[in-house]
Write a structure and sequence with these properties.
The chain has 433 residues and is an alpha+beta fold. Helices cover 41% and strands 13% of the residues.
């Protein structure tokens, strides 16, 4: 009988999944976890910014480990991480991946997380919107968990609105266009004020989303020449011809648009939600105190509350060739930093959280005036284009098509049909078709 009891005990011991890491195991075997990240990920985890909450230290204390943060500069970060992932001996146990890098090649060098997620899932998975996982999915498997996100909002000048008798920000895209017309004017000093600061390297995708479509969907369906796209760019052409959009819009980049808003020369613009702080900083903006944020509106009839936010997403992943001895701990790192408590504390440190619940926390809203706007934006947030080897070329095609559609005289539908054919060519060249 004693032998039977002993045998059962041994079987149960080995039946416990190795990746359910416990505090007791960590205390018995102290470990070092190597994490490759951008400096901003390290700063918000260590509490070097904002509220100064050291979330990383809590993890180290709970699991009896030391995190070695290796921060990489943005310039060349993608190339360095890819080289490391393909090396015979991989140094990092955990890597941070930007969604723009997450093509099939890179994902193939990451460990699938599905078994971990099934046996030892992170807290309340549905609290992280499904669209944030899209870049890290391939062939039915998950290769990364979201950590940080950039959301978009409509930033508008309350002073200019008040001067023109406009009480509320637009609720639909049609209202946005009418308000843009109403607030376009020439100031007493002779300076021209434009209603909307359309940028061809950002808003060409946002306006399509406002009409309920993506130029190219995550499953590679081409919509750039759909009736909705023709309507979107045709409407923007009218605004351009009317002088509501700056005449040099094809060359209008983010830095220039930001400066014009700060000078009160653009009344509305679509920017990341965090630009609220920049626009209201008196050191860099003459309109500090006048700038407010609202959800970027969708066109009437789409059924959308607002335009889905085109989002930059950072995910956390485990290299396929990472040390076997630290893989369980690497998953605990992902679970810990994706928890509600960690996401809230890092948000107070200045991180852009990936959990819907964070955006309705009183502590968060007390520090982030635009928090309610972001709370709405995150619900439908996702990248506006799929990530593959030809993404950059597709974006260039869409950008050029948008510029010609808005500033040119050629039939918009014809311009977009050409763009669709070019995107089809790119997909074939990269083996998608």
């Amino acid at each position: 009988m004693k032998r039977l009891v002993l045998l059962v005990a041994v079987i149960l011991l080995f039946a416990i999944p190795s990746f359910v890491f416990s505090r007791g195991a960590a205390e018995a075997e102290p470990k070092r976890l190597v994490v490759w990240a951008h400096s901003v990920h390290h700063e918000v985890a260590r509490g070097l910014t904002g509220a100064g909450i050291d979330v990383s230290e809590r993890f180290e204390e709970e699991f009896g480990v030391e995190i070695e943060w290796i921060t990489l500069p943005w310039a060349g970060m993608q190339e360095r991480i890819l080289r490391e992932l393909t090396a015979p001996d991989v140094e990092p146990d955990v890597v941070f991946i930007n969604h723009n890098w997450a093509d099939r090649d890179l994902l193939s060098h990451l460990a699938p997380l599905d078994e971990y997620m099934n046996v030892s899932p992170f807290e309340d998975p549905r609290d992280i919107p499904e669209g944030l996982f899209a870049p890290f999915l391939h062939d039915g498997s998950t290769y990364g968990v979201p950590y940080r996100i950039t959301l978009r909002a409509l930033h508008y000048n309350r002073r200019i609105f008040d001067e023109h008798g406009i009480e509320n920000p637009p609720k639909t895209l049609e209202e946005l266009m009418e308000i843009a017309r109403a607030v376009t004017h020439t100031r007493a000093d002779g300076a021209r004020v434009y209603g909307f600061g359309f940028r061809p390297d950002q808003d060409e995708l946002t306006i399509l989303r406002a009409f309920g479509i993506d130029a190219l969907t995550q499953d590679f369906e081409i919509n750039i020449n759909s009736p909705e796209a023709v309507e979107a760019y045709s409407a923007a052409r009218v605004l351009y011809k009317e002088g509501v959009i700056p005449p040099d819009f094809p060359a209008l980049d983010t830095a220039t648009a930001q400066e014009l808003i700060g000078e009160g020369l653009i009344a509305m613009g679509g920017f990341p939600d965090g630009y609220y702080v920049r626009f209201n900083n008196p050191e860099v903006s003459r309109e500090a105190g006048n700038m407010e944020a609202a959800p970027f509106p969708a066109a009437a009839g789409t059924g959308l509350v607002s335009a889905p936010s085109d989002s930059a997403i950072w995910g956390v992943a485990i290299p396929q060739r990472a040390r076997q001895s630290t893989r369980d701990l690497a998953w605990e790192f992902i679970r810990f930093f994706s928890s509600k408590e960690a996401q809230l504390d890092m948000a107070l440190n200045g991180n852009a959280p990936v959990r819907s619940s964070t955006y309705v926390e009183d502590r968060f809203l007390a520090e982030v005036p635009y928090g309610e706007v972001s709370s709405q934006a995150i619900q439908t947030a996702s990248p506006a284009l799929p990530t593959f080897g030809g993404t950059a070329e597709v974006r260039d095609i869409v950008r050029e098509a948008a510029i010609e559609s808005i500033t040119g005289d050629r039939d918009v539908a014809a311009v977009l049909d050409n763009a669709a054919a070019e995107i089809e060519r790119v997909l074939r060249e990269h083996g998608i078709r």
